[in-house]
């Protein structure tokens, strides 16, 4: 089987970490054709558009997309705002490809258990946040600021079908794990959350093989700190998922280790997906060999599992990452006493060496 993967290196440290992910993917021995495209600030600088038409066409013609982080201070004041890398690049790409399900696993890796800010046995976690990605307050209209700067408006909108389809994705993921799901909302205050809870409850009543609990978002934020091990699959809307998944990632000890997938509908045996590390573009360390490539490498493993149906190769990559960490190999963000400091490319080489 041969695959085509669109590679969108992005900005800042994006090209460095994506290079290592591609290196590891090549080491699997799979037949993958990689084709680069422009996205984000680098695309804006070269073409005046953070998401050129050529990139959209490339993504549509590919089996999956591997992407680095986009944006940075250089483009924060670009006007109009729809030409900024995050809005006109990443958010538009998700909408263009109908990638409505953001999957963010957060797992404590045993070699890094002491890096977690939580101690005394409360630092062990293995959960997945399933975040609705193309609705909610990030996309709602109207959104504006008064000319005199005295008022700003953002609108949160959810349609029933948007909640239904992300709920189906979350239940499917829960069935591959412990068959337990926590749906997070703010139903005591928000009308969109009341619709969210209603739709999830209706689906749960017809799919009783998965146990469901509802939790208010403020309580969920507290419970993640109190006892993250109580969660398995967290289903939630766009903004809540953005915040909670970042909180969960920091409990693991390093944002540089967390992968993510943005998925669309399954068509036959294929699922279109965009795979990217959770961390940002970190322009302050770009080009210095300090970036941790493991989140990008683990995102590549997610790509193999969810879009290319190559679970065995995904398992090999994930095992190689844990093996390298168990040997005390570290990049600067997770370096500690009695470990060995590696550059970005050296860490990629170490993962390749551990693959069996």
Helix amount: 25-40%
What is the makeup of the main sheet?
10 strands, mixed
Instruction: Give the number of helices.
Output: 11
Uncertain regions spanning at least 5 consecutive residues: none
What proportion of the residues form beta strands (DSSP E)? Answer: 15-25%
What Rg do the Cα atoms give? 20 Å
Overall pLDDT, averaged?
Answer: 94
- What would the principal axes of the Cα set say about the shape? globular
Q: Give me the CATH architecture of the largest domain, please.
A: 3-Layer(aba) Sandwich
The N- to C-terminal Cα distance equals 20 Å
The CATH topology name of the largest domain reads Isopropylmalate Dehydrogenase
User: What's the structural domain tally?
Assistant: 2
Q: Structural class given helices, strands, pairing? A: alpha/beta
Features:
38% helix, 356 residues, single chain, Isopropylmalate Dehydrogenase, alpha/beta, 2 domains, ten-stranded mixed sheet
Structural write-up:
This protein is of the alpha/beta class and 356 residues long. Helices cover 38% and strands 20% of the residues. The chain has eleven helices and 14 strands. The strands form three sheets. A ten-stranded mixed beta sheet has the order 2-1-3-12-11-4-5-10-8-9, with helices on both faces. It has a two-stranded antiparallel sheet with strand order 6-7. Strands 13-14 form a two-stranded parallel sheet. The longest helix is centred in the middle third of the chain and has 16 residues, at 160-175. The mean pLDDT is 94.
